[in-house]
Amino acid sequence: MTLGEAETDDQGQSARPQSLMFSFLGIYVLGRGVAVYSGSVIDVFARLGLSEEAVRSTLTRMAKRGLLARHRRGRKTYFGLTAYAAEVLEDGRRRVWETGAVNRDWDGTWTLVGFSLPDSRRSTRHDLRSQLVWAGFGPLLGGMWIAPGAKDVSAMVAALGLHDHVTVLAARALKPTESADLVGRAFDTEQIAGRYRAFLDRWDTPRPLPSLPDDLARQLLLHTDWLQLVRQDPHLPAEHLPPDWPAIRAEQVFRSLARAYEGPARRLSGQFLDELTI
């Protein structure tokens, strides 16, 4: 399960409070062996203008979905990560800090996924396409989707019960086909670039989001915006993208601001967060 799938609610819409909650949990809970008091989480999120009702609803919904576990001490309820949530958040951490936004190490291979499903399985076909997008695939021809590099889709196929309907291959482009042509045909590079430009418009300024009260609020929003970007990015080979590809500058801005906000945000969070060792 990926972060993109875990962030999607039952109606298939990404909920902003939940996206912010994933950022908060990834920064302040993942790998620390703690649970956080719901009241202190509400205090943190109030700095972003989220109501107590919205935060409590998000925590409850995530607990129902097996992402959070409740822990009680006296009259207080603390929320900690389940193993499932830790896996989801670790996937997000790798995308942000290890995979990054710029693919400079492509080995020239593609993963191809071909499928054919009857109309009676339209819903499953939609689920497969959605999960392929999250995994970095783009539609090439009819039921054939491609992604740069080696992609393991076995868990996705198994979860959807599609072993008999899906073919997965590793391939290289051969003449007259060029990899650059595949990038242009299967992926909307202008749309991807537009998302990075929007990020830069918001964050690549001397004082980003001055209306927010402090660097804790800016840190959570920055990480949320960036993770939304990288999990929608198919990580296309840099050699087949324009030299001024905006993801390059956007990643520099993200990393610089993340470092700048880290210290002040940690100090502020220490004033708000009530933690329970678990």
UniProtKB/TrEMBL annotation:
SUPFAM superfamilies annotated for this entry?
Answer: Winged helix' DNA-binding domain
What sequence ranges are listed for the domain Transcriptional repressor PaaX-like central Cas2-like? 104-183
Gene3D superfamilies (alphabetical):
1.20.58.1460, 3.30.70.2650, Winged helix-like DNA-binding domain superfamily/Winged helix DNA-binding domain
Pfam families per record: PaaX, PaaX_C, PaaX_M
Question: What processes does the entry annotate via GO biological process terms?
Answer: DNA-templated transcription
Superkingdom, taxonomy of origin = Bacteria
Q: What InterPro entries does the database record attribute to this sequence?
A: PaaX-like_central (IPR048846), PaaX-like_N (IPR012906), PaaX_C (IPR013225), PaaX_trns_reg (IPR011965), WH-like_DNA-bd_sf (IPR036388), WH_DNA-bd_sf (IPR036390)
Domain called Transcriptional repressor PaaX-like N-terminal: residue spans: 16-83
Instruction: Please state every residue range assigned to the domain named Transcriptional repressor PaaX-like C-terminal.
Output: 187-267
What the entry lists under PANTHER family is as follows: PHENYLACETIC ACID REGULATOR-RELATED TRANSCRIPTIONAL REPRESSOR, TRANSCRIPTIONAL REPRESSOR PAAX
Designated name of the protein: Phenylacetic acid degradation operon negative regulatory protein
Organism equals Nonomuraea solani
